[in-house]
Design goal:
283 residues, alpha+beta, Rieske Iron-sulfur Protein, 4-stranded antiparallel sheet, 10 strands, elongated
Length: 283
């Protein structure tokens, strides 16, 4: 295992990968800019990142096709072919959602993500070659292509796991944020003017507090997507936009207007008592 970590560490430090990663990330960012595209590929509509869920489909299809190729015999040939085809079809939206997520990464995460995408693209190419060989009657060649593609896919999957579970890419940055359970003073009512906003730290939780025409509201200040500081963002039309990647949340309830965030922003109760603004976690 130490050997694997060392290999990944070298990839993380391989700045030569930036020459390819940076221009590609710029292209992907432009392609996913429309709100419908961004929200769909980010998983905004399903409540968590879309890419990890979709990866199960091609991995499962190609794993089972490989199993049938090895032990299924002639009676399983048609089923194996269908599974290869199903994996190819499923890999397209999986790759699109992965590229969307990758375009928001920086530094070592971007480098690992680039190699992860290259390996998975190679696996897709080998699976497509397997499909063509099978259709032309070259079954043995098709099996070799299919098994080789699955082997490459496993290497790509390892890097995907590293990004998710070691680097924490696309993990909800507010998952462990709590805050005060009881009403807690944060500042004097006169310190927050109409249309104003500020960041306050309460019980170890950074909270964005603002006053609008509809009253006081408070959200977690750390963007759930990649941890951007919302107090440094843009405030328009009853919403706040993260300065890092453009995730936009409604101030009234923390719901998502625009991705790439897929988890709503935690909201806090507010009130004014004895001319002091107070907040607490929603009961």
């Amino acid at each position: 295992m130490n050997g694997l970590h060392e290999v990944v560490g070298r990839l993380e430090r391989a700045q030569v990968l930036d020459r390819c990663a940076r221009p590609l990330a710029m292209v992907v960012s432009r392609l996913v800019r429309p709100r419908l595209v961004r929200n769909s590929l980010s998983g905004t509509y399903v409540g968590h990142p879309l890419h990890p869920m979709l990866t199960d489909l091609p991995i499962g299809a190609w794993a089972m096709s490989g199993l049938l190729d090895v032990v299924g015999g002639r009676g399983a040939e048609r089923s194996a072919d269908m599974l290869v085809a199903a994996g190819v079809v499923a890999a397209v939206p999986t790759a699109a959602s992965g590229l969307n997520d990758w375009s928001d990464t920086v530094g070592s995460d971007t480098r690992i993500g680039l190699v992860h995408a290259a390996l998975n693209s190679t696996a897709l190419g080998l699976s497509m070659a397997s499909l063509v060989a099978r259709a032309r009657g070259h079954r043995s060649r098709g099996k070799v292509f299919g098994l080789a593609g699955f082997g490459v896919l496993l290497a790509g999957s390892y890097l995907g796991g590293h990004l998710s579970f070691v680097k924490g890419v696309n993990v909800n940055r507010t998952a462990w944020q709590d805050g005060p359970r009881e009403w807690t003073d944060v500042l004097a009512d006169t310190e927050l003017a109409d249309g104003g906003h500020c960041k306050v730290d309460v019980a170890g939780a950074p909270i964005l507090l603002a006053r609008t025409q509809t009253g006081l509201w408070a959200l977690a200040n750390t963007c759930s997507h990649m941890g951007g500081p919302l107090n440094e963002g843009t405030f328009t039309d009853g919403s706040v936009t993260c300065p890092w990647h453009g995730s936009t949340f409604r101030s009234s309830d923390g719901s998502i207007v625009r991705g790439p965030a897929s988890t709503p922003q935690p909201r806090y109760e507010t009130r004014v008592s004895n001319r002091r603004i107070q907040v607490r976690v929603l009961p």
